[in-house]
């Protein structure tokens, strides 16, 4: 098997390489690609050092089985179709193709079946969306979700390397802001992405559109507020859900326990505890009645929200299309 990682020097790219090794996916050939700035840098993979190469059209024509993209939207828009045309299955972390009708938007635990017989570009959803749908898909199957009101508390690593560097700089007294629109140290910023004419942000609309696409239900009413907080790794979400059918709270617990890669925890979980894990944790599930409930939902944004989901897509695609 031949794999290329495009954006290999970034937060998500480095984690994808790590998760590939952790999951024992050790291709016979692997290429690490990034911008010209990184050419020649070294990446250690499975005990061997590899030199980073510049992402170019030519290199993608070498015919990789899988190309994992995390090099930003414009690089994906330019290069992902070239890789797909060369016969590779492309797993793209950017938002470039997520809402294209012909492109599957995949969280393998929920709709991995879309990968059967599929070749071309597969989109990896937005980090906040992945962890939310993982915790809600069984509840939606069983009771039908009518409304979701969600406030996110998103780590600075969600903005990539530059987000972490900005927080660290500000912790040392430099108060300039460029990755975020206001100071993030000792503060929070209730805007992620650009604000559009209707007042919602682009990040908020990703949660609306992508959740409906993954759960295959355009009627779910979704009301997000996305907030950047001075946490390094781990996105948290306060989620209010209204269902179509009535439930007993124990039935919500049961649906959560039956959700793959989700842990219903009796203890409250905080970002420091989820950093470095591949599970989504739900705690503080509570209700006043039998149609609405609140919960606290939390996961590592770089792993569950990006790298691990991408590698899980690769693994599921392999399993479905290359039966042993
Ligand atoms: N961080 C998250 O939580 C998260 C979650 C889900 C999805 N994503 C998406 O994943 C992508 C990468 O995010 P990140 O957080 O890893 O960002 P990052 O830390 O800033 O890394 C960006 C990577 O892309 C490379 N790159 C940038 N422009 C390029 C170009 N023109 N050609 C080739 N390579 C280029 C960079 O290479 P150099 O090092 O050479 O500059 C670097 O390897 C983005 O599309 C982002 O929206 C991120």
Please write out the topology.
Layout: E1 2-6, H1 11-22, E2 29-34, E3 42-45, E4 48-51, E5 53-54, H2 57-60, E6 66-69, H3 73-85, E7 89-92, H4 108-111, E8 121-123, H5 127-143, E9 145-154, H6 161-171, H7 202-214, E10 221-228, E11 235-243, H8 249-257, E12 262-264, H9 271-274, E13 280-286, E14 292-299, H10 303-321
Parallel strand pairs: 1-2, 1-6, 2-5, 6-7, 7-8, 9-10, 12-13
Antiparallel strand pairs: 3-4, 9-11, 11-14, 13-14
Helix pairs in contact: 1-10, 5-7, 5-10
The structure holds NADP nicotinamide-adenine-dinucleotide phosphate (NAP).
Structure summarized in a few sentences:
Helix content is 33%, strand content 24%. By secondary structure, the chain is of the alpha/beta class.
Q: Please, could you describe this protein's structure?
A:
This protein has 2 domains: 2-124 and 306-321, 3-Layer(aba) Sandwich (Rossmann fold), CATH 3.40.50.720; 128-301, Dihydrodipicolinate Reductase, domain 2. The protein is built from 10 helices and 14 strands. The protein has helices at residues 11-22, 57-60, 73-85, 108-111, 127-143, 161-171, 202-214, 249-257, 271-274, 303-321; strands spanning 2-6, 29-34, 42-45, 48-51, 53-54, 66-69, 89-92, 121-123, 145-154, 221-228, 235-243, 262-264, 280-286, 292-299. The strands form 3 sheets. The chain has a 6-stranded parallel beta sheet with strand order 5-2-1-6-7-8, sandwiched between helices. Strand 1, helix 1 and strand 2 form a beta-alpha-beta unit. The radius of gyration is 20 Å and the shape is globular. Bound molecules: NADP nicotinamide-adenine-dinucleotide phosphate.
């Amino acid at each position: 098997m031949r794999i290329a990682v495009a954006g290999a020097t970034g937060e998500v790219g480095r984690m994808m390489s790590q998760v590939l090794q952790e999951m024992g996916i050790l291709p016979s050939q692997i290429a690490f690609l990034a911008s010209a700035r990184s050419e020649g840098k070294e990446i250690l993979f499975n005990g061997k050092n590899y030199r980073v190469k510049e992402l170019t059209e030519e290199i993608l024509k070498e015919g990789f089985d899988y190309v994992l993209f995390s090099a930003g939207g414009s690089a994906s828009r330019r290069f992902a179709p070239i890789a797909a045309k060369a016969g590779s299955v492309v797993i793209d972390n950017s938002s470039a193709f997520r809402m294209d009708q012909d492109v599957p938007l995949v969280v393998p635990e929920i709709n991995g079946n879309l990968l059967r017989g599929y070749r071309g570009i597969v989109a990896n959803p937005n980090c906040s969306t992945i962890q939310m749908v993982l915790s809600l898909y069984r509840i939606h199957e069983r009771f039908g979700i009518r409304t979701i009101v969600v406030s996110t508390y998103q780590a600075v690593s969600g903005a990539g390397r530059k987000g972490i560097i900005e927080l660290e700089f500000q912790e040392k007294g430099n108060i300039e802001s460029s990755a975020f629109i206001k100071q993030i140290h000792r503060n929070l910023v209730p805007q992620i992405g650009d604000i559009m004419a209707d007042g919602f942000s682009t990040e908020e609309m990703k949660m609306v559109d992508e959740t409906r696409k993954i759960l295959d239900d355009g009627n779910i009413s979704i009301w997000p507020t996305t907030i950047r907080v001075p946490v390094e790794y781990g996105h948290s979400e306060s989620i209010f859900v209204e269902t179509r059918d009535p439930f007993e709270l124990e039935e919500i617990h049961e649906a959560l326990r039956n959700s793959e890669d989700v842990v219903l925890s009796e203890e409250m979980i905080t970002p420091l505890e989820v950093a470095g894990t591949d599970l989504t944790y739900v705690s503080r599930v509570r209700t006043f009645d039998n149609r609405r409930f609140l919960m606290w939902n939390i996961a590592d944004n770089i792993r569950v929200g990006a790298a691990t989901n991408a590698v899980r897509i690769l693994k599921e695609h392999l399993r479905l299309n290359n039966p042993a």
